Amino acid sequence: MQTSPAQTRSAPSRSAQPRVTAVLVAANGGGHLDRTLDALVAQTRHPDGLVVVDIGSSDGSTTDIALGGSAGLVRLPAGRPFGEAVAVAEREAAVADADEPSDEWLWILGHDNAPAPDALAEMLSAVEIAPSVAVAGPKLVATEDPSLIRAFGESTTRFGRSLGLVQDELDQGQHDRHTDVMGVAAGGMLVRRSVWRDLRGFDPALPDVDAALDFCIRARLAGHRVAVVPEARVTSAGPIEEFGRKRVSEARRVRLHRQAQLHRRLTAAPAGLLWLHWLLLVPFAAGRAVGHLVAKHPAAVSGELAAAFAVAFGSGVRRARKNAARTRRVGWTAIEPLRVSWRRVHERRTTSRDVELARVEDAPIARASFLGDGGVWVVLAAAVLSVVTLYPLLSSPAVTGGGLLPLSTSVGRLWQNVGYGWHSIGTGSTGPSDPFTAVLAVLGSVFAWSPSTGVVVVLLLALPMAALGAWFAVRKVTTRTWVPVVGAALYTIAPALVGALTTGHLGAVIAHVLLPWLLLAVLEAHRSWAWASGAALLFAVVAASAPSLLPVLLVGWVVSLVVGWRRAHRRVFIPVPAAVLFLPLVLAQVARGNPLAVLADPGVPSATRAPSAFQLAIGQPLPDWSGWLLATSTLGLAAAVLPIAMAVLALPVALLAVGAVLGHRWAVAGAALVLALLGFATAVAATHVTVTGVGSTTTIVWPGSALSVSALGLVLAACIGIDVLPRTAPVTGIVAAVFAGVAVAPAFAASTLGDTVLQPTTGRVLSAYVNAEAQANPDVGTLVVDPQTDGSLAVSLERGQGSTLDDQTTLDATALRLSSKGTELATLAGNLASRSGYDPEPALRSLGISFVLLDEAPDDAAAEAVHDRAAGAIGQDARFTSIGETATGQLFHYEGDVDRVASGSAATQATHVLYLVVLGIVFGAAALLAVPTAPRRRRATSNVIEAEEPATTFDEERDE
Predict the structure, then answer these.
(1) Ramachandran region of residue 247, left (φ > 0), alpha (ψ -120 to 50) or beta?
(2) How far apart, in Å, are the Cα atoms of 227 and each of 36, 221, 302, 323, 538?
(3) Pairing verdict, β 162-164 and 154-156
(4) Read out DSSP for 114-170?
(5) CA 920, 925, 928: angle at the middle one, nearest 5?
(6) Residue 414 CA, distance from chain mean position
(7) How confident is the model at residue 97 (pLDDT cuts 50, 70, 90)?
(8) DSSP code, position 55
C-alpha cells in the first residue's frame, strides 16, 4: 500500500506557491517504482498532484498500488512511447482553480527517477529567481552509486548529433557553475505547464531518444530558457532507450539515436535545402553503413539503414516543422553558443581512444616473442628448405603436373569462371563453378600481370607460412618461449603438407597453411568483430580449398558455439561466407543425386592411390611412405621394415601428445587430441569416397587435407606435453623434430632425384600452333586423345589456348553419366582412333573441333599399341593434316569448316553478374570487418584548456 505524496503535503502558504503536478511513468518498474514513490512522499516540498501512468507493466509492479486524494493512475497498452504517456498524464491532471496561482509546473519522472528529499524544492527555488526559465532539470546520478553523474545537461554538435554534457563522471561539483544548457533529460524535468501545452509536448516522431532535447530546443526558440539545477539530485538507472526494457540491442540503439538525429536535422533544415537533405538520407546511410563495418560495428548497419528509411518515408517531419514554425520567436543563432564545439567532440573521441588503448596496453605480456624467441628463425629456416626443395620453380612463371595447370592469362577470364555461368571445359555446360575458383581469382588478381605466378608463389611460401601460423598457434597454448619453435617445425614438415606440395594439390596446401590461423581466429572470435570476420573469411577459404574438410569445420564451429555460448553471437556468422560460396554447387549436386560430390577435390582430377589405415594413423597421405618406398626399393626389405621404421619415427610426437593429457592442462590437450582424431576419421572416410572420374576409373578424395587437421591437433597436444615436462623437455622436443624430419627426408629430395610431378612451364598448355590459332578464334577446339594402360582412350576437349586450372569444375569431374555432347565426343574419338566407316565431319563441325592432339603413350605395351593405331588412323585420313610432334604429343589439323560454339545465354550471364555482386557484398563486408583497427594515442597539441564559461540567456559564450 502506497501513500500519495499529495495527501501529505503541508497546508500553510499553499496559495503563495506554484502548483506542481508530478507525472510518474512506469513500465515494468520492478523494485525502482516503490523507491521512487517513497522518495516523492519524503519530499520537503510535496507536489500538489500525482498522476501515475503505467505502460503495460507485466511484472506486477503496479498491481497493488493504491493512490488517493489528488493522485491518480492511468494505464496504457504496452509499447507506447514515454512522451505519449506524459501527454496523457498532463491531460488527466487537475487544472488550477481560478483563485490559485496561474504558475503551474509539471514534474516528469520515470519509475527509476527517485528524487532526493529536497530535489523539488531546489528546482522551484531556481526557477523562482529566474522567471525566464521554462524548463529545469536536476543532476541525474547513478542509482547504485549516487556519487556518479549519469547526465547533467544535453546539447548537440553542428550537424545535430546529441551529446550529454556530462556522462559517467565522479561528482565533485566541477560542473555546478554551468546552469544554462541547450536541453535536459526527460527524467526529473520540471516544465512550465503553459509552455508544455503551447509546444504540444514531446514530438510524437521522437518516442524516446532526444524527445526531451528536442522539446528544450523548441522552448528556447520560443524565447524561454532551459537550465540545470545542480543542487537537485535524481537517480537514473540508464538511458531513456532502456526505459522499461530488459535489454536493448546495438542495432536498436543505433536506430533510435540515428533516427532522432535525422528527424531533428530535417525538422531544422531551411526550406530551400530540405529536398537536398531528403535526397541524401539513404545514400549517406549506405556510406555510414560501410563505415560501421570498417569500425567493427556490424550490428549498427541495420540500425543505420532502418533509421534513414524511417525518416525518409515517414510522415513525422512535416508535422514537426509545422509545429516548430508555429511557436518559434527567435532564430537559431540564439542557441548557437550552446552547441558543443568540434574541439570538444574531438577531445571526447581521443579520450575514449586513450581508454581503449590503455586497456590494450595493460593486457598480459605475450608468452613468447616472435623476434626474440626463435620464431623468425624457424620461418627463415622453412623458407630456405622451400627454396632447396622447389628450386626449379624459382624462375618459372607457371607450374603444371599432378592437380595443377596454369591459370588463365587475364584477370577478367579468372572472374568469368567464378560463380554460376557458362563453363567451356569439355563440351561446355551451364552451372555453378567450384568455390575454389573464387580463391584462384583472388590469387590471380594479386598477380594481375601474370596470374599463374600466384600459384608458384603460394607453393614457394607454403613452408614458411605454415611455420609462421603454427608458431602463433602453439604460442597460444604453451608458456615456454622455445616450445613454439618445435611446434612450428613439426607442423611445417608434416607429411600432409609435403605430400600435397609434391603431388600438386594446391587446395590442400592452402588449407594446411591457413588451418592454424583459422583455429586462432575462432578462439579469439568472441573478442571482436575483426577476429570473427577473419575467422569467417578463413573458414570460407579453407572450405573452398579442401571441401572434404567441411564436416570437420562445421563440427568445430558447432563446438565453439556450445563451449562459448555466453559470447557466441559473433561466432554464429562464421560459416555465412562459405555458405554463399557453396550454395549453388550444393544445390546442383543434390539435384543430380550426388551430394557427396560436393566434397570432391578442386583442380585437375588426378589418380590417388589409397593409403592404408595404418599409414593414415602415422600421418602418411600416400602409400609411398613419403618417398622411402622408392628410396629403399633396391634393398628388398621395404615392405617389412618400412612400417616399423616409420612408426618408430612417429612415436615421439604420439607419446608427447598422449602424455599431455596427464598434465595440468589436460583439458586443452584433450581438445587438441579430439581434433586430431576427428581429422584422422575424416581421412579414413576420404579413402572410401570415390566421386571423381580420372580417365576410365574413379579416384578417392585426397586424404592429406584431413591429415593436416590431424597434424595440427597432434602438434598442439605434443607441444603442451613438452611444455609441462620437467628437465627432459628440450631433449624430447629436439628428438621429436629430428625423427619427424627423417620421416619425410626423401620427399624433400624429390626434385633433386627427379621424382616429382611438378614441372615448370611457360604457362602454355597447348602447342604454339594452337595458341596462334586461338588468338584469332578464342573458342577453337582441340580434341585431346590420351592412351591408357588398360588399352582404352581418355578423351577431352579443350578450348582456345587450352584448359586452365580455373576452368576446372567438379560438376564435370563427378558427372554420373555422359551428356549427349559427351557421348558424341567419345564416339568421335573412338572412331578417329581406328579405321571405320564413321563420318566425323558432322561431329567435328558441331563441336567446333579444329585440332586433334594425340598424347604420348606411357611406358606400357597396351598404351603404345593404342597410340600407334590412333596415329595411323588419323594420319591416313585426308581430312587431317599432320602438324608434327609437339611437347605434348602429335598434333593434327582438321581442314574442314567448324561452327562457333555457344557461350551461354543472356539469362546465364545476368545470373553470373548477380552472383558476383552477392559475393562482393558478403565478402566485402566480411573483409571490411576483418581489417584490424587499433586506437592511436592522442598527441598533445597544447596544454591550454579551452575556457568553459557558463552561458547567459541569449548572449552566451560557448559552453565547451
Answers:
(1) beta
(2) 23, 14, 36, 23, 55
(3) antiparallel
(4) -B-TTHHHHHHHHHHS-TTEEEEEEEEEESS-TTEEEES-EEE-TT--EEESS-SEE
(5) 115
(6) 24
(7) low
(8) E
Q: CA 767 to CA 772: how far, in whole Å? A: 9
CA dist., res. 305 & res. 290, Å (int): 11
Residue 352 CA to residue 361 CA, distance in Å, equals 14
| Domain ranges for the chain | 5-354, 375-397+450-760, 767-894
Q: What pLDDT is stored for residue 959 in this prediction? A: 32
Q: Order across the sheet with 793-799: list the strands.
A: 793-799, 781-787, 849-855, 889-894, 880-885
- Look at residues 139, 99, 98 and name the one whose alpha carbon lies nearest to residue 115: 139
Terminal Cα distance for the chain, rounded: 47
pLDDT of 954 strictly over 70:
no
Q: Which residue has the higher pLDDT, 789 or 463?
A: 463
Query: Which cell numbers in the block locate residue 435?
Result: 568455390
pLDDT tens digits for range 145-192: 888 888 888 898 877 788 888 877 887 777 878 788 999 999 999 999
Helix (H) or strand (E) segment spanning residue 885: strand 880-885
**Rounded CA gap, 376 and 369, in Å?**
9
| 510 Cβ contact list (under 8 Å, min separation 6) | 439, 458, 541, 542, 545, 546
Instruction: List the Cα angle 890/893/897 in 5-degree steps.
Output: 160
CB 115 within 8 A of CB 39: yes
Q: Looking at per-residue confidence, does 726 or 107 come out higher?
A: 107
Q: What pairs with residue 432 in β-bridges? A: 420
Give the pLDDT confidence score for residue 58 in this predicted structure: 82
Q: Are 763 and 406 in contact (CB under 8 A)?
A: yes
pLDDT digits (tens, 9 = 90+) for 431-449: 888 899 999 999 999 998 8
How far apart, in whole angstroms, are the C-alpha atoms of residue 437 and residue 432? 10
Distance CA 756, CA 504 (A): 9
User: DSSP states of 111-124 as a string?
Assistant: TT--B-TTHHHHHH
Q: What is the DSSP letter of 240?
A: G
Sequence-separated (6 or more) residues with CB below 8 Å from residue 193:
21, 90, 104, 105, 106
What pLDDT does 101 receive? 53
Task: Report which of residues 559 and 368 the model is more confident about.
Answer: 559
Task: Retrieve residue 483's grid coordinates.
Answer: 616450445
Q: Which residues contact 950 (CB under 8 A, 6 or more apart)?
A: 177, 178, 179, 180, 959
- DSSP-H helix ranges across 478-596: 483-492, 495-503, 506-524, 529-545, 550-563, 576-591
How far is residue 368's CA from residue 487's CA, in Å, rounded to a whole number?
Answer: 13
C-alpha distances out from residue 189 to 40, 423, 590, Å: 14, 69, 64
The CA angle 847-853-856, to the nearest 5 degrees, is 145
Say how many CA atoms lie within 13 Å of 164 toward its Cβ: 18
Please give the C-alpha separations between residue 160 and each of 156, 237, 793, in angstroms, as whole numbers.
Answer: 5, 26, 76
Q: Is 896 in contact with 845 (CB distance < 8 Å)? A: yes
Cell output for 491:
607442423
Residue 216 has pLDDT above 90, yes or no: yes
Give residue for cell 599432320.
882
CATH superfamily for domain 5-354: Spore Coat Polysaccharide Biosynthesis Protein SpsA; Chain A (3.90.550.10)
The DSSP call for residue 699 is E
734, containing H or E segment: helix 729-743
Query: The cell 505519449 sits on which residue?
Result: 84
Burial class (CB in 10 A: 0-12, 13-18, 19+), 664: exposed
**DSSP alpha helix (H) spans, 295-374:** 299-312, 316-327, 342-361
pLDDT the model gives residue 225: 93
